[in-house]
Amino acid sequence: MSLRELAERARARLPEVAKGDRNGALLAMARLLEARWEEVREANEQDLEAAQKAGLPKAKLDRLRLDERTRKDLVAGLKEIAALPDPLFRLEGLAKRPNGLRVGRMRVPLGLIGFIYESRPGATVEAVSVALKAGNAMLLRGGKEAFQSNQALVALWKEALKEAGLPEEAVSLAPTTDREAVLEMCRLELLDLLIPRGGEELIRLVQKEARVPVLAHAKGVNHLYVDERADLMMALRLALNGKTQRPAVCNALEAVLVHEKVAEAFLPLLEEAMRAKGVELRACPRALPLLKEAVPAKEEEWDREYLDLVLRVKVVEGLEEALQHIARYGSRHTEAICTEDPRTAWRFLEEVDASLVLWNASTRFNDGFQLGLGAEIGISTSKLHAYGPMGVLELTTLKWVALGEGQERT
Amino acid sequence: MSLRELAERARARLPEVAKGDRNGALLAMARLLEARWEEVREANEQDLEAAQKAGLPKAKLDRLRLDERTRKDLVAGLKEIAALPDPLFRLEGLAKRPNGLRVGRMRVPLGLIGFIYESRPGATVEAVSVALKAGNAMLLRGGKEAFQSNQALVALWKEALKEAGLPEEAVSLAPTTDREAVLEMCRLELLDLLIPRGGEELIRLVQKEARVPVLAHAKGVNHLYVDERADLMMALRLALNGKTQRPAVCNALEAVLVHEKVAEAFLPLLEEAMRAKGVELRACPRALPLLKEAVPAKEEEWDREYLDLVLRVKVVEGLEEALQHIARYGSRHTEAICTEDPRTAWRFLEEVDASLVLWNASTRFNDGFQLGLGAEIGISTSKLHAYGPMGVLELTTLKWVALGEGQERT
């Protein structure tokens, strides 16, 4: 079936998804993952074999693998989301107007969401569960390497939906994984939202081609600014946590900006601590003489997301230069300041344009669970609708509702 | 100066706009409209003369005209917006996480907004005032017919900004009004948001070409569904108010759907009342025999916005068919039901996908002031970020903020 047909069939069933037993479907999926894991594992084996033959690097094979631990995490996640309060059809802020008309906003699903992802097949369970909780249908286009795994998981979703009395058309996988499928999604005006999650090239392609609303989940070029009034020991811990606690994720730290007045004291400490963790430093001309083994950072490198044990270091004249650097090279994902001066901190918090701005805390906190939202479908770096982690509420919208007794406009 | 240069200059000054005396600029503009109205009027005269020579119909000339009443309305609007509470930099929902990290959301401007409009030159004052109150800069591309008027008004805006100590780069008018300027705006990745307001063709062009987020303000193909349990006298009043109180606006009524059980009683009443107001009826095959002078509605007509004294009438089997008709032909703008049955009403309220859904009230209430938002920049029919009237809050976004004491992720 073509993408368009899949989308049309999903659209026709949207009210049933919103009104049906969505939690029942989530719990049925949890049971099916337990009972029929063998099917998923076998499909995953096929993907892994093909990927090995194609010579995929070990890191990518690891991301592709669905093991016992993944199963447990997925099942636990489904149960957790099922237990969350239902967001739909609540009326917010119902107020009475002078003419007696009662007006408020009702929370409703976005509708049909297109999800283009390149990542781990586990996302096929996680992303759908968040979207479904919010009453949406979902059209998935996963990565080539995970195609068999994704098919097996979507087959289970369809069974789970059926078990709960929901239309199985609510979750579908695009029949192909080529670039053409991405372009087709971009032009499918039947989508209420398109979420691309993946590499820079994919995001840029979708932003250029899409004729439907897009919430991009782009790279995280995240900075820590170490102010002249920073607690340097705290700054050191935050830099280490940001860079090394899990380097391959989008909220990891990519660059440290250091106030010139503390550069001499801070940079040798930073180098020693980072070296002990195997982190390579790339530095600006002012930082280089203060470091023993750093290499010069190239100009074209400053907006790069390494996702690896590499850290850029730059000495700045002060807050002003730090703000300018972040505005120019940052990716509006996560930005942090370390300072004991509240005035400097608040200026940073107010002026930096990023989905999360932190004062004296690690960039690694930009995450749905850490911020108290619960499960998320990714972290939006788009400013509209949802800026930051997208949880269940971010996959709904508010429409206006008016309850009258015959009111006319005069 | 090119659009790109104007946008770059505006972007560079965004923090100053957000932090500056925005209310001061609004009040200065109000004073300048009083003191220097002559300049605006002269520019408007040039536009009117050219339009007359070009043979524009009278309705369009009326829309183009800036008279004393417009001036008064614009001045009053500016003062009203200046008096609204400031939306920026408020921290919402600051909560303490188990690790002591305080997280919340801070309201900040969207940034640089592109506004493409074809309408009355008064929009040059109204739209900018809402955007500026919310701390945004604005790049305008107005219609050809109003170019002199728009230039005069933007010149006053620049003076008002200067008087209040704000950068005059915050408001600019595109140097040309051709289609090329629209396409250039669509591709200007420096924009945080692009708002097209105008005819269907313009909206579709922008949605197709834009590489930045778009909130479309599309046509209103609005229905009133008269249920079998409707108070028919109320239904009649709502239909008349929706269609005739101001036919040329987007929240006017375009079609009435009537339950078959009340069609025989209701349609003759409707025809008589509408005829008295000079409204032409176009009807479905089932409605035709119940009407004296109606003409058949053509199939391709059902999704049309007349903006005129023309009304479509259709007999439906019941709620189900009404919902399906609205889903197919509606434009997600404004939809109303007239019924005394709360069960039917709530199903309509929940299931109809439109920016405002009304029960026993006129579609004409889809308006920022009527819903209690105050001034608006238009009515969004996009589901993301803002669905319905876009006031000051809808032109801001919420970013996450975290206040820590050295917290690291474990």
TrEMBL record, chains A, B:
Keywords: Amino-acid biosynthesis, Cytoplasm, NADP, Oxidoreductase, Proline biosynthesis. GO terms for molecular function: glutamate-5-semialdehyde dehydrogenase activity; NADP binding. One of its GO terms (cellular component) is cytoplasm. The keyword Signal does not apply. Its EC number is 1.2.1.41. Residues 100-276 form the Aldehyde dehydrogenase domain. Coiled coil: none annotated. It is found in: Cytoplasm. Pfam families: Aldedh. The keyword Lyase does not apply. Catalyzes the NADPH-dependent reduction of L-glutamate 5-phosphate into L-glutamate 5-semialdehyde and phosphate. The product spontaneously undergoes cyclization to form 1-pyrroline-5-carboxylate. This is Gamma-glutamyl phosphate reductase.
